[in-house]
Amino acid sequence: MSSLSASSIHKTNELAVSIRNVGLTYTTAIDRRPTLKARVKALGRGGKQTRVVRALDDVSLDVEYGQVLGVIGTNGAGKSSLMRCVAGILPPSQGRIEVYGSVSTLLALGVGFNPSMSGRDNVYLGGLAAGMSREEIEKHFDEIADFSELGDAIDAPMRTYSSGMYARLAFSVAATVRPDILIIDEALSTGDAKFKEKSLNRVKELRSDDRALILVSHAMQTLRDTCNDVAWLHKGKLIQRGEPNQVIDAYQEFLHLGKSAAIDEDF
Amino acid sequence: MSTPLQVYEPFRAGLPKLGKYWKSLWFRRTFISEYSKSELREQHFDSVFGQLWLVLNPLLLSGVYFILIVIIGGTTDSSRYVHLTATLFLFYLVANSLTGGVKSITAGQRLILNTAFPRIMLPISAVVIAIFKFLPTLIVFLIIKVIVGSSFSFEMLWAIPVLMITIFLALGLAITISCINVYFRDIASFLPYLTRTLLYLSPILYEASALNPNLKALQVINPLFPILDSWSHALVHGEVPQTSSMLQGLAWATGIFFIGTYFFLSREREFAVRL
């Protein structure tokens, strides 16, 4: 939660994130909204109306500086939960996570944006939400505006934007933050094909020896191109981790056949 | 090997490191003000008519309550109207902090689920918004005071510490209620009844000195009572407020602030799971 400008120079292969035996269980209420009324009504019945969801199960993972780690898995595999744990948004239920650097997250686009304000105002709002300082945003404003290719539309209220324009501006703001550790969740597939390529190039630019990148994506070709390491999660467990092509091949085979040697061992 | 910057372990109810927390909160002070401004703009308070409404709304309210006083109390004394507007406007600072604060966490769901920041920022910005809404009414009050021909004096400056205590109390209340609302979402529906009750229990439609001695207990259990009384003493009557009232108000504010903040800070790491 400290300043996001790179705090110190990190050496390649120095530990960036250490995840040790992390488990995460949610206790979600069956009633969608927890209310006092429901609590009082439940008094007579005794026991809470809850369901336990195991999102992560004994996951251990190290990420080093200089690494670009891809995280793959089917929907509900626990990818986003793991990312939120590393970012400090969700506390793990078991285990321990150590983070050696400043973390910035790009888990959803346009967090902190206010649609009734202009694109220009939202650059500040979104940037501040992402942890940048006003001066940093001012310094990078032209760069952000250029990258988003919005032109004059930057001064129009954001509710007049198309969803592609919205996503483009959001990505441009997020890509300006220069943290030690950057976590990107599904945010690469924004805009049209041209912008997609452009944002992918930006991510490739961000790869450097003193930074760690974690990409969550379903775009396997992108991961093959960008990552030097891939982790595969399934139902909250780490199934396989290693050389991108190898892991992705195994994962794709699993998707195709619905089963895998690696998973069979675990279940 | 350097020491880890952040360590995340299983949630336990307990306070985070306060120095570090304060530092990260201070680091985000620009975000608090920008966030509050954007919320205000969403409610159209950046336009001429929006600002006019900001002034017109409390003015109309005070008019309505004055009619009530005239009909029930039978007084048409202009100083009563000055008292009514002064206290009503300050009351709305607290009431707006409560109504803004109650949903601040649940409405900030997207922000909470996707970024790590000190969550207490959200109820704080609800109070900042309430202060922004309060300031124009303070000017309106001073204009009313001039029109009515009420005198000005240096003793009126005592209103400044009273306002500080009020903001402190509003902050404590907003933090407390935003935290409660995460666990019991229907608190927001009870809130109108709560604020309405608080309005009638406070010396707004009547002067504190006019309260029936049998009902003195109301004075003790209502945090706003000593504060509004001091406010009226300073701003309306141009007198030095009673020290006991100011201290009582400060004690309430401090108590609520620290208890509420303790609950909030010890639970905020769990909010993301609860939303």
Protein structure class of chain B: mainly alpha
Which descriptor suits the 3D outline of chain B? globular
> What's the helical proportion of residues of chain B?
over 70%
Name the CATH class of chain A.
Alpha Beta
Helical content band of chain A: 25-40%
Structural class of chain A: alpha/beta
- Classify the fold: give the CATH topology of chain A: Rossmann fold
Distance from first to last alpha carbon of chain B: 37 Å
Q: Give the overall average pLDDT of chain A.
A: 82
Structure, briefly:
The complex is a heterodimer of chains A (267) and B (275). Helix content of chain A is 37%, strand content 25%. By secondary structure, chain A is an alpha/beta fold.
List the helices and strands and how they pair.
The complex is a heterodimer of chains A (267) and B (275).
Chain A: E1 15-29, H1 36-45, E2 50-64, E3 68-72, H2 79-87, E4 94-99, E5 103-106, H3 119-129, H4 134-148, H5 163-174, E6 181-185, H6 193-206, E7 212-216, H7 220-226, E8 229-234, E9 237-242, H8 244-257, H9 261-266
Parallel strand pairs in A: 3-7, 3-8, 5-6, 6-7
Antiparallel strand pairs in A: 1-2, 1-4, 8-9
Chain B: E1 6-8, H1 18-27, H2 29-42, H3 48-73, H4 78-102, H5 104-107, H6 109-114, H7 121-148, H8 159-183, H9 187-201, H10 216-221, H11 224-235, H12 243-267, H13 271-274
